Amino acid sequence: MCVGCRQRAETGDLVRVVAQMREDTPMIVVDPAKTMPGRGAWLHARSECISTATRRRAFAAALRTPGLTVDPEDLAEQLGVIDHQRMAPRSRNR
Hints:
Blueprint: E1 15-22, E2 25-31, E3 40-43, H1 47-55, H2 58-63, H3 72-87
Antiparallel strand pairs: 1-2, 1-3
């Protein structure tokens, strides 16, 4: 379920994010392989979902990480890179 729009979706349609400590501050990190340790939250890679989740402070609750602040522009940039990689054409071996 997307923490932004609260709609159910296939895991292939959602991006997993986790909280990691960096310099004694919890930060949100995109988990493109969906294998990072710790509690994860799922999100559509859409600006509306990022904005809604940030406004509702859904990341801190979903990840059970008090003090977690999310920069929506930074997260959108991270998710944009992920989307770009997904959309890149695959080379075919002949």
